[in-house]
Amino acid sequence: MSKTVLITGATSGIGKATAELFAKQGFNLILCGRRQERLEQLKNELGRDTAIFILNFDVRNREDVFSAIESLPKEFSTIDILINNAGNAHGLDPIDKGSPDDWDAMLDINVKGLLYMSKAIIPKMVENKSGHIINIGSTAGKEVYPNGNVYCASKHAVDAINQGMRIDLNAYGIRVGAVNPGLVETEFSDVRFKGDSERASNVYKGFQPLKPEDIADIILFVVTRPYHVNIADLVVMPTAQASSTIVNKNN
Ligand code: NDP
Ligand code: 8X3
């Protein structure tokens, strides 16, 4: 029987590429996001290959998260694989100039949203003693870079939550692991720079960034390992990148 995979942030970037790849592999997919048109388009396109259910909610809204998961029809109600991917950076400012609204957005989405999703789904995994959770962290969860302060804090929190989940769910045979990408060209920088597309595209100029499909490939590899293999924490960067601040733009 095909496994059921829930992907948050499936309307763009890494989540969308993962949905597209997983659909080709025949996984049943629950695709989440706030942009209804994009969700419907995904359902139409990927529905040719596999069963798709779409859920439109904001991960910041705890009640909406729980009612979305409760609303799943029987055939989608057992989630085998949870991919906690929804998230973004908002702003890139020194700590004294940062916007508290941006801080709220990053902590509410990247940290609390991930926790709400996990709380809505994990109890049934525990009951079934079965499940696999992939948390999308970042190199920003491994090191802090100038002006990255709160985004980096949110991804360090994801790193800690990933470790905590693995410890707490170990007794139930539930696999937990993180995939931590470096620079991937998606809508990420458009969101970070609030629609300033020139500033956003400059982030990826002069070197070859990762593509969202590269991360989707890795997520597929992670979930298709034999049951006794759990990829606990994986960091992946473009070859041109050595750290958050060292990117070789000369080759
Ligand atoms: P995108 O901006 O392309 O995608 C972000 C996704 O998150 C969208 O599908 C968006 O959907 C969803 N999302 C954002 N806010 C909310 C919300 N409040 N409620 C529900 N869904 C939300 O960025 P990426 O694909 O790059 O980012 C995906 C993940 O990868 C993030 O966690 C990011 O931090 C991480 N990451 C990205 C890297 C990069 O360089 N791009 C590197 C390392 C990690 P919608 O707007 O429809 O709600
Ligand atoms: C996204 C990667 O370096 O832009 O998490 O913060 S970075």
Automatic annotation (TrEMBL):
Domain of life from the UniProt record: Bacteria
Annotated keywords: Oxidoreductase
Gene3D superfamilies listed in its UniProt record: NAD(P)-binding Rossmann-like Domain
RNA-binding recorded as keyword: no
Keyword Oxidoreductase: yes
Stored Pfam families: adh_short
Family note: Belongs to the short-chain dehydrogenases/reductases (SDR) family.
Protein's UniProt name: SDR family NAD(P)-dependent oxidoreductase
Organism: Flagellimonas yonaguniensis
Organism lineage: Bacteria, Pseudomonadati, Bacteroidota, Flavobacteriia, Flavobacteriales
